[in-house]
User: Fold this.
Amino acid sequence: MKLLVINGPNLNMLGIREPDIYGKDTYADLIARIENYAQTLGVTVECYQSNHEGAIVDKIQEAYFTGVDGIVLNPAAYTHTSVAIADALKAVSIPFVEVHISDVDKREGFRQVSYVREIAQRTISGKGFAGYLEAMELLVAEHES
Assistant:
């Protein structure tokens, strides 16, 4: 099984950006946890981060043509604004789980709006880095069923 983990804007700044909300672990720490867990699950994983909406759309479209079986997506700020990312996900019909490190439903009102939630297999919010691992498990279980 082949998974793609996509992280949106500012997630490359983990450990620096608002550590009281996002924690002190870095983006490199997150990627290491994801890659190690992929080995445990026996799956292939590619991790991708971009601060640019169009690049994320391109990566989602590319996933269709490269045989990706599932996507773990943290669209970050684009969660609340990007019809383009939602449309790309609809276009490729690859199962995906929406992930947020913080509990967006308990933050500012604008963060409680998600353009991808209604089309996601599931949304995992507020579980820190562990949310990514849970999303991977869910996608693997769905793929194997």
Observations:
- The first helix runs from residue 19 to 22.
- The chain is about 40% helix and 20% strand.
- The beta strands are 2-7, 44-49, 70-74, 96-100, 122-125.
